[in-house]
Amino acid sequence: MSTVRCLSLHTGEKIAKKQDVIGQIEQAEKKYFARHEAFDFHNELKKRNLELIVIVNEACVSGARPMLVAYMVFAYMKHGSTIMLHKICVQEKFRRQGIAKDVLATQVQRLKKRGIAKIHLWVDDSNVAARQLYAHMGFEEVSRCSDYYAMGRTGVQMALRLV
Questions:
Q1: Across all residues in the chain, what is the average pLDDT?
Q2: Which CATH superfamily is domain 3-161 in?
Q3: Over the stretch 101-122, which tens digit does the pLDDT of each residue have?
Q4: Which sign, positive or negative, has the C-alpha torsion 141, 143, 145, 149?
Q5: pTM above 0.90, yes or no
Q6: Which of 36, 59, 68, 70 could crosslink 24 through cysteines, CB 3.0-4.6 Å?
Q7: In 10 A of CB 18, how many CB atoms?
Q8: Which of 110, 22, 130, 118 has its CA nearest to residue 66?
């Protein structure tokens, strides 16, 4: 079974309501990603090599479920010291506030402490904001692949060395 870490937007502390946000994540997948790029979380989370980091705003009306802010998915590679950042998604109303940068920076430090040597990712060449974020975090372009996402959509592979 995958690891699911559900963290508070305000304190960074773990919160227990993981199941409350899985449905919200599935809705976000349908909204923000092409059908063939969307994750099937019910099946994917059964795999042992995935880690889902969920950021929620639990400062909602009393009794309401926590509101999904962002999530990221990591996939551990077979050789153990490399991890793939499969996806980062921030809900539209929380974008351009530094949330992805802060969460990614925290996770990079956590992974470094765990002995992960390198983080790999693929990003759509047309996603300028994401590419700028990764470059700012120290990721470097490794390669490009034409039609990686679909016809006419180039994928850019980036990597960050942690050790």
A1: 81
A2: Gcn5-related N-acetyltransferase (GNAT) (3.40.630.30)
A3: 988 998 899 899 988 999 999 9
A4: negative
A5: no
A6: 68
A7: 16
A8: 22
Q: Which residues contact 17 (CB under 8 A, 6 or more apart)?
A: 6, 56, 58, 65, 66
Backbone angles phi, psi at 44, to 5 degrees: -65, -35
What's CA 13's distance to the chain center, in Å?
A: 18
Task: List helix spans (H) across 11-87.
Answer: 18-32, 41-44
Residue 88's nearest CA partner among 52, 44, 34 is 52
The ranges assigned to domains in the chain are 3-161
Closest by CA to 95, choosing from 12, 28, 38, 26, is 28
What is the per-residue pLDDT for 136?
94
- CA atoms of 52 and 67, how far apart (whole Å): 16
